Amino acid sequence: MRSGSFYLFLVYIFAISISLAIPKPEDKEGKKERTIDRELSDQEHFVNEEHNPQYDHEAFLGEEAKTFDQLTPEESKKRLGIIVDKIDKNKDGFVSQDELKEWIRYTQSRYLLDDVDRQWKSYNPELKEKITWEEYRKLLYSFMDDADANDLDRSDEGPSYRDMLQRDRRRWSVADEDGDDALTRKEFMAFLHPEEMGHMRDIVVLETMEDIDKDKDGKVSLEEYIGDMYRGSEGDTEPEWVKSEREQFSKFRDKNGDGVMDKEEVKNWIIPPDFDHAEAEARHLIYESDSDGDQKLTKDEILNKYDLFVGSQATDFGEALSRHDEF
């Protein structure tokens, strides 16, 4: 019989391991989004074919955007105005598309650096130049040395602990560019956020396929594609977005029309080539806010659409507006 503390430790380990996985956000209907949008937001850009304002909130403010409901509209507009002044690099009184795109990229870069810094210090409290695989394994997976094999292999719907260890080991080896089985801070960033690094993209695709490809035939069928996003109960009416996803699979995902997605088609799906998310979102925000049609935004135009940029009480976004270091 395992002790209660061991159960708690397993939960702790599971939570940390999941934090290293590729994000799979869900909307209210339980839809998972696989497309890599880490440059901007974990939120799905479109929900049920309608624009999702939460995407804008995270894109504009970054991962801190979570406590806007604690601010009055007056206070939020005041603080947003200060941010707008920072975005306007050339101080000409307008926010251009390039300035807005640069700000969106900055918010994501800040999140990544803060996250890597926090985890680097957590796993490497002595702040050594490198962390070895054995140090990392002992910290995160040493409980497996004395655990029952059946517990380690039990997976339910997600990966087992043994699977997670093997996946981390493989990802570690790919991130370890100099092959010394130890990661520098830069290599550790690639390990934590593989979707951000060009040389790690194949591991992102491989892990995604392992999650979705239930029959392990090396391809993703329509049933597996839908099953990863939606698991309705017997007798449930299939939501409209599921029907739309079936059409997306047939028309756009399965490019060669053979009824399945191979590795290259999965890669095109989750990591679209030659698509600048920050530029696309900057264009969208200008389109929504540019009342005079001059393709740039004044502070008043942004403040008039402050809920679009930073959220509302209904969406629980906007923590960046309460960060003292912003002001």
Provide a descriptive summary of the structure in words:
By secondary structure, the protein is mostly helical. 52% of the residues lie in helices and 4% in strands. The protein has 15 helices and 6 strands. Strands 1-2 form a two-stranded antiparallel sheet. Strands 3-4 form a two-stranded antiparallel ribbon. Strand 1 (46-47) and strand 2 form a beta hairpin. 24% of the residues are buried. The model is unreliable at 1-29, 36-51 and 312-327 (pLDDT under 50).
What is this structure's SSE topology?
Blueprint: H1 4-19, E1 46-47, E2 50-51, H2 53-61, H3 73-87, H4 97-123, E3 131-132, H5 133-141, H6 149-153, H7 161-175, E4 182-183, H8 185-192, H9 201-212, E5 220-221, H10 222-229, H11 240-253, E6 260-261, H12 263-270, H13 277-289, H14 299-304, H15 306-310
Antiparallel strand pairs: 1-2, 3-4, 5-6
Tell me briefly what this model is:
With 327 residues, the protein is mainly α.
Order of helices and strands: HEEHHHEHHHEHHEHHEHHHH
Number of strands: 6
Q: What would you call the quaternary organization?
A: single chain
The overall average pLDDT, rounded, is: 78
Strand order of the largest sheet: 1-2
Looking at the structure, what is the overall shape? globular
Question: Gap between N and C termini, in Å?
Answer: 54 Å
Main sheet, how many strands, which sense, barrel?
Answer: 2 strands, antiparallel
Note the beta-strand portion: under 5%
